[in-house]
Each structure stands twice: as structure tokens, then as C-alpha cells.
Specification:
The protein is α/β, with parallel strands linked by helices. The chain is 50% helix and 19% strand. The protein contains 8 helices and 6 strands; from the N terminus they run βαβαβαβαβαβααα. The chain starts with 9 loop residues before the first strand and ends with a helix.
Length: 171
């Protein structure tokens, strides 16, 4: 049980270079306001000072949230592959593709590109209220999460896996 994550816990992972647009602060506020003891959020990456000042007080107050700092690409992949839900409520990043290819479900900001590529295989969240609603739903009905994981993993294998994309180029 690394990082205090138990077998039946729902592991959320959020990563990247966290600035205001990444919505890390909104994410930790949403989880902190959710009454779900079976959720654990790992935050991986670096934070700008303004984000750290908003986020770290919540991290310190909530044992379900842990800030791990920067990790190597290989370490990050291990966390993404362990994640039940990759949470990216703000700016886009290629890490989302890696998370989906690892079999994680995802909660993303509803960018047109995400909606076009991923359809309804992922959760979309725009606000703290959306995130709170999602966390409450999946904490009580984890099967919702499993259904999205299966859908997004299938789409990831078909559309995002670099080996598949490379094979199309070399036909």
C-alpha cells in the first residue's frame, strides 16, 4: 500500500507543470469538499509559487491528498498505470494520452479536441461543482469508473497508441 493507498481505494493522479490554468487548486478544493474516504489523490510535477500557496494548505489538511513533486518519466508512467482516474481539469498535456494507454479513466476539461477524439469515453469537468459531483458519484459507484476505463482504453489503443500510429505511417 504505497502512499497509503488501499486495494479498494480509487487512485486519482494529476500531473504536470502546475500553473493557474492547470486548475490544480480547483481540483484539491473539490476533493477536499468530497466526503469520500476511499479516494486518494497523488499530485506529481512542479508548481508555480502562486499555485503552491493555494494548494499546499489543502494538501497539508487532507490526508487523502499527497504532493510527490517531480518524478522521472519512467516513475510517472508507473503512477499513470496504477491510476484509476487521471484528472486533468485544466490545460491539455500529452500525459493524458499515456494515462489512457495505461488503462486509466480520465476526467478532462471539455476541449473540442478532447470531445472529438475521445467522445463520451472520458468524464468532462469544467468547474469545482462538476468535479465534486464526479468524485461523489465514483466513490459510491466505482463501476461507473470501470466502464469509462474500458471505453477510453479501447479508444486509446485504436487512436493514441504510438505503435499503432507508427504502423499506419509505414503501410
Amino acid at each position: 500500500t504505497a502512499h497509503g493507498v488501499k486495494e479498494d481505494d480509487i487512485l486519482l493522479v494529476h500531473s504536470g507543470k502546475m500553473e493557474k490554468a492547470k486548475k490544480t487548486s480547483e481540483l484539491v478544493q473539490a476533493l477536499h469538499a468530497t466526503q469520500a474516504d476511499n479516494m486518494k489523490l497523488l499530485i506529481i510535477g512542479s508548481m508555480t509559487n502562486d499555485v503552491a500557496s493555494d494548494v499546499m494548505s489543502v494538501v497539508d489538511a487532507d490526508p487523502r491528498i499527497e504532493y510527490l513533486g517531480w518524478k522521472s518519466g519512467e516513475e510517472l508512467m508507473d503512477y499513470l498505470c496504477a491510476a484509476d482516474l487521471y484528472v486533468q481539469p485544466g490545460t491539455q498535456s500529452a500525459t493524458m494520452q499515456n494515462a489512457l494507454c495505461c488503462g486509466s479513466a480520465a476526467a478532462l476539461y471539455p476541449y473540442e479536441s478532447h470531445k472529438y477524439l475521445l467522445g463520451d469515453s472520458v468524464f468532462y469537468t469544467e468547474t469545482i461543482a462538476d468535479m465534486k459531483k464526479l468524485f461523489a458519484a465514483i466513490s459510491t459507484k466505482p463501476d461507473i469508473l470501470e466502464a469509462k476505463r474500458a471505453m477510453s482504453n479501447r479508444i486509446a489503443r485504436e487512436r493514441l497508441d504510438y505503435k499503432v500510429l507508427a504502423a499506419r505511417l509505414y503501410r
